[in-house]
From TrEMBL:
Protein name: Clavaminate synthase-like protein
Entry keyword set: Iron, Metal-binding, Oxidoreductase
Chain residue ranges for the region called Disordered: 197-217
Family to which this protein belongs: Belongs to the iron/ascorbate-dependent oxidoreductase family.
Source organism: Sanghuangporus baumii
């Protein structure tokens, strides 16, 4: 029988489990597969395929990135953190709104954030480590971290951050060239030690509903419909659950997790910098399909974002961006000049998903937000 059923979390929740495969009877949305080695080598056909992925859907698979062992270590780090007693994790809770600038570590209590336009509470936990804190360690840029995280900092977290930066910087360089910008333009907007919201993250969504197929009810969503706040995401997961909303479609489509393949996507900031040429696409996380839904869903990600003081605007220095803007109405063009910094943008987006800010007109508030921020 199709539908969702309540389940109990397995007593075994470590990321290294042998997990059931993604079921064949759940349709998925195909993503283009991009070879990182070919990108670095300057292969023209691969770069053109990559550009197609970044401008049409804004999501793609990336293989041969060299991060798999580091990702496994990050999963272990997250499991060690999430296994701590709740009262210990609460000591490291990040702040809200403007108080959260720079407080990138977040182990938030289940139910602190809304998942969708109806304001349903989430059931997800996060461990976020600031890029700047990792690069400066043992010096503190934003905040300190719990002992279980510090124990993994030099062996696991810092190498993962360095590898993620390498991969995403290479992608930024390609975007410079394709947009006709001077080399280093995008890198300068994402300077590694500028205070920012860039972070390494481990996410755990505990099993809650058995997903036998059919539409996903609003109260079953783990992480609701959103675009990413920053520029680029480097995502690694083992179970299904990620869904994309393809342009022009009203139907959500699963993205198949493929071993050894990261899932990368464009965020709001690159969408703005590129005048919408690079697509920041709507996505969400729902319970994994079929037998996978009996297991906790773990993800590891690195998010790169511009410096907090960088003003978000379409980069009219680019002939490609100027051409895109020239085809827009004045109202459409204004969307790409929001007159905010990245830090202000991040605070606004975070405020929108906090339950305490959703006490009135929840549906209309998030609908308006999604209209404003989905580029």
């Amino acid at each position: 029988m199709l539908g969702f059923h309540n389940i109990q979390e397995s007593s075994v929740n470590m990321p290294g489990l042998t997990l059931p495969p993604f079921p064949d009877n759940f349709p998925t949305h195909p993503l283009l597969v991009i070879d990182y080695g070919l990108l670095k080598a300057g292969d023209i056909k691969e770069i053109d395929k990559f550009w197609k992925a970044a401008t049409e859907l804004g999501f793609w698979y990336l293989k041969n990135h060299g991060a798999d062992e580091l990702v496994n270590g990050m999963f272990d780090t997250g499991a060690e953190m999430m296994d701590l007693p709740l009262e210990e994790k609460m000591k490291w809770l990040r702040g809200d709104g403007t108080e959260s600038f720079g407080y990138i570590f977040r182990c938030k209590p289940i139910g602190a954030y809304a998942t969708n336009e109806y304001g349903n509470p989430d059931n997800t936990e996060y461990l976020n480590v600031s890029r700047e804190d990792a690069l400066a360690y043992p010096e503190v840029v934003h905040r300190t971290y719990p002992p279980v995280v510090n124990a993994r900092m030099e062996s696991t977290i810092i190498p993962f951050v360095h590898k993620s930066i390498e991969v995403l910087d290479a992608i930024m360089t390609i975007f410079d060239r394709k947009l006709g910008l001077p080399e280093g333009t995008l890198a300068d907007l994402h300077a590694h030690m500028d205070r920012s919201g860039s972070d390494a993250r481990v996410i755990k969504s505990p099993p809650k509903y058995r997903n036998d197929g059919g539409p996903v009810d609003k109260d079953k969503v783990s992480i609701g419909a959103h675009t990413d706040f920053g520029s680029l995401t480097f995502l690694h997961n083992r179970l299904g659950g990620l869904q994309v909303l393809p342009p022009g479609s009203e139907d959500w489509h699963y993205v198949l997790p493929v071993p050894g393949h990261a899932i990368c996507n464009i965020g709001d900031s690159l969408g703005l910098f590129s005048g919408g040429v690079l697509r920041s696409n709507m996505h969400r996380v729902v319970p994994p399909p079929g037998p996978q839904s009996a297991y906790p869903r773990w993800s590891v990600a690195f998010f790169t974002r511009p410096g907090n003081d960088v003003k978000l605007r379409a980069l009219e220095e680019s002939p490609i961006v100027r051409e895109a803007l020239s085809r827009m109405s004045p109202e459409q063009r204004a969307k790409y000049f929001p007159n905010v910094t990245q830090g202000q943008w991040l605070a606004r987006r975070r405020d929108n998903v906090t339950l305490k800010n959703r006490k009135a007109s929840i549906h209309s508030n998030i609908k308006s937000s999604l209209d404003n921020f989905a580029l």
